[in-house]
Amino acid sequence: MSGPRPVVLSGPSGAGKSTLLKRLLRDYEGVFGFTVSHTTRSPRLGEEDGKDYHFVTKETMQQGIDNGDFIENAEFSGNMYGTSTSAVEDVQSQNLICILDVDIQGVKNIKKTDLNPIYVSIQPPSMEILEKRLRDRHTETEESLQKRLEAARIDMELSKEPGIFDVIIINNDLDEAYEKLKEVLFEEITKVQQSKKS
Ligand SMILES: Nc1ncnc2c1ncn2[C@@H]1O[C@H](COP(=O)(O)OP(=O)(O)OP(=O)(O)O)[C@@H](O)[C@H]1O
Ligand SMILES: Nc1nc2c(ncn2[C@@H]2O[C@H](COP(=O)(O)O)[C@@H](O)[C@H]2O)c(=O)[nH]1
User: Fold this and answer.
1) Which keywords fit this entry according to its UniProt record (predicted)?
2) Region class of 70: left (phi > 0), else alpha (psi between -120 and 50), else beta
3) Strand 70-76 relative to strand 79-84: parallel, antiparallel, unpaired?
4) What's the maximum distance between 2 C-alpha atoms anywhere in the chain?
5) What is the domain extent for residue 95?
6) Is residue 180 part of a domain?
7) Residue 186 and residue 178: Cα distance in Å, rounded?
8) Is residue 198 part of a domain?
9) Is position 95 within any domain?
10) Whose CA is nearest to atom 22 of ligand 2?
11) Tens of pLDDT along 134-193?
12) Strand ranges (E), 11-69
């Protein structure tokens, strides 16, 4: 049996990607594995190094990029982010569905690789709701919030490009968005569950 297809979750900052993927990881233990990205941004309250991200300096990140350690990398809102080959291999070697949480540049760069994931865009119902979610999350300064909103406008425009995503989910009601996401991933989830039984 070939391994399950990875899943790329993208969409504007604050749309609800982490909330949805954390639910998947909680509800489907032993089915999904999160690819822990590298970033140069500072950890938020409660974030753990090696679990949420590998928090690194710009120098370390640049060295990794120069060494060819990343399948994709991008600058987002003044910080560097990237998915390492080893993060993907770690998950795939356990025959789990690899979930990647990347911005739109990451999506475009992953399309140049042979990863062959299912591309899912999580979109907010409106810019106003997105802004409220980001403000209520209390993770941003006014300056970084404005940068994220600007990136969100670009993301929302680019995501309309035909063929870029396999599915676009509007995350208005969280439970409904989660049900839709599970439907989209049903075939891959079943594949992993069956392989665990045999
Ligand atoms: N459907 C929803 N209704 C109301 N609030 C939501 C919904 N989905 C997510 N949220 C809240 O919105 C905020 C942003 O969600 P989350 O952190 O999951 O977004 P994200 O897309 O992962 O953002 P980032 O890309 O910055 O990591 C969180 O505080 C989360 O609890
Ligand atoms: N291209 C990549 N984008 C990534 C990666 N990891 C996260 N992200 C995206 O960055 C923004 C901001 O994330 P935050 O945790 O600072 O809020 C968000 O859109 C993520 O999807 C990555 O490895 N590569």
Assistant:
1) ATP-binding, Cytoplasm, Kinase, Nucleotide-binding, Transferase
2) beta
3) antiparallel
4) 53
5) 7-193
6) yes
7) 12
8) no
9) yes
10) 82
11) 999 999 999 999 999 999 999 999 999 999 999 999 999 999 999 999 999 999 999 999
12) 32-34, 37-39, 53-55
Indicate if ipTM > 0.90: yes
Q: What is the number of structural domains in the chain?
A: 1
State pLDDT tens for residues 4-31. 999 999 999 999 999 999 999 999 999 9
> Tell me, what's the pLDDT at 92?
95
Q: Is 147 in the pocket of ligand 1 (CB under 6 A)?
A: no
CATH of the domain at 144: 3.40.50.300
Q: For residue range 154-169, what is the model confidence (pLDDT) as tens digits?
A: 999 999 999 999 999 9
Based on its alpha-carbon atoms, the radius of gyration of the chain, rounded to whole angstroms, reads: 16
Q: What is the pLDDT of residue 3?
A: 85
Residue 31 Cα to ligand 1 midpoint, Å, equals 23
Q: What percent of the chain has pLDDT over 70?
A: 99
Amino acid at residue number 150: E
Which long-range contacts link 28-34 to residues 24+ away (Cβ below 8 Å)?
28/189, 30/96, 30/192, 30/196, 31/96, 31/97, 31/189, 31/192, 31/193, 32/7, 32/96, 32/97, 32/98, 32/99, 33/90, 33/91, 33/94, 33/96, 33/97, 33/98, 33/99, 34/91, 34/99, 34/101
